[in-house]
């Protein structure tokens, strides 16, 4: 039963502006067989400042917040709804550490190692928990009833 519920896990991924010029390569990484992630939905958009502040509101008190919002609104992004067993953790694992420079030494095959630049410009986003995934998917796919596609919170956190 746990495996079945894990199979339904959803996460929110986003290809950030700096990696959009290598979108095909990043998507190839994402759809690698071993990750067992499926693209349930996707949306190309340019975030407004208000949307970016909302998406990253957990960081609003951090010194890098203004810079983060400027970066993430600097060009188009690809928002993705990913599903698969343990999707939240698997996608975070595929991304590697936040800092791309650290990723290049500790996780050289990770997406941030391959496509990111530094601790801010780091190619892609991934929700850090099932609850965050729910919040971020609802925010970025408001026209869907995302809750329809998500397991109840806590069933596979
Ligand atoms: P994300 O939310 O984008 O998936 O990244 P994360 O969990 O690995 O890292 P988080 O701590 O949530 O930070 C969100 C994004 O803010 C930028 N950042 N800049 N200048 C800095 O010190 C700094 N630290 C983080 C990065 O773009 C990071 O992904
Ligand atoms: Mg984060």
From TrEMBL:
Residues 8-148 form the Nucleoside diphosphate kinase-like domain. ATP binds at residues 16, 64, 92, 98, 112, 122. One of its GO terms (molecular function) is nucleoside diphosphate kinase activity. The keyword Metal-binding applies. Keywords: ATP-binding, Cytoplasm, Kinase, Magnesium, Metal-binding, Nucleotide metabolism, Nucleotide-binding, Transferase. The active site is at residue 125. One of its GO terms (biological process) is UTP biosynthetic process. Belongs to the NDK family. This is Nucleoside diphosphate kinase. It comes from Hirondellea gigas. The lineage of its organism: Eukaryota, Metazoa, Ecdysozoa, Arthropoda, Crustacea.
């Amino acid at each position: 039963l746990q495996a079945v519920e894990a199979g339904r896990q959803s996460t929110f991924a986003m290809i950030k502006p700096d990696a959009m010029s290598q979108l095909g390569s990043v998507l190839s990484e994402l759809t690698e067989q071993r990750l067992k992630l499926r693209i349930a939905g996707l949306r190309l958009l340019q975030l407004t400042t208000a949307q970016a502040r909302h998406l990253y509101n957990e960081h609003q008190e951090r010194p890098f917040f203004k810079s983060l919002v400027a970066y993430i609104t600097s060009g188009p992004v690809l928002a993705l709804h990913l599903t698969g067993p343990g999707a939240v953790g698997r996608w975070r694992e595929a991304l590697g550490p936040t800092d791309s420079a650290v990723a290049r030494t500790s996780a050289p095959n990770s997406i941030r190692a391959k496509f990111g630049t530094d601790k801010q410009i780091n190619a892609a986003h991934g929700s850090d928990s099932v609850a965050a995934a729910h919040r971020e998917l609802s925010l970025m796919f408001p026209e869907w009833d995302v809750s329809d596609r998500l397991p109840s919170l806590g069933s596979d956190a």
